[in-house]
Amino acid sequence: GMGKTTLAKVVYEKLLNYYEGSCFLADIREVSGKRGIIHLQGILLSKVLEETNLNICDDHEGINLIKRWLHRKRVLIVLDDVDDQLEQLEKLAGNHNWFGPGSRIIITTRNKHVLISHGNSNIYKVEQLNNDEALELFHLKAFKHKQPTNDHAIFIKSVVYYTNGLPLAL
């Protein structure tokens, strides 16, 4: 609810035209649990290569295909909502030499330790909104303006307090 996915989507949309290929892999935690890592590897390759007829037999083949086909391509990849399993990162974006020079891999997760274990040193922590920012966001979304009205002041303050500054909840 901090806005990690929303922030990643905005960055992705602004940057994708500067790369030879791109992929936003959403909800990795959920998709991996339901469909498996091979499915995610297939989506990644299909989107970056703009190829629909990919058949990956197992995750090791998926790793080899990603390395072989993307190691010279400048790509932008977002891995959204990676869970605590380092395996997901290792099988989707093992290390930087899997991709061409200038590539960017953006990872959103609730657990920064999985990023550290994967060797990522550029970690951006999304902070909670302060009270003023939370009020402004709520007004923009609920009332389509920034200035509070006296009629709703108590209600608004209780909503902001209850949501604890989480943008998605607001």
Automatic annotation (TrEMBL):
One of its GO terms (molecular function) is ADP binding. It holds the Pfam family NB-ARC. One of its GO terms (biological process) is defense response. Gene3D superfamilies: P-loop containing nucleotide triphosphate hydrolases. Residues 1-146 form the NB-ARC domain. PANTHER family: ADP-RIBOSYL CYCLASE_CYCLIC ADP-RIBOSE HYDROLASE, LEUCINE-RICH REPEAT-CONTAINING PROTEIN. This is NBS-LRR disease resistance protein. It comes from Dimocarpus longan. The lineage of its organism: Eukaryota, Viridiplantae, Streptophyta, Embryophyta, Tracheophyta. The gene is NBS20.
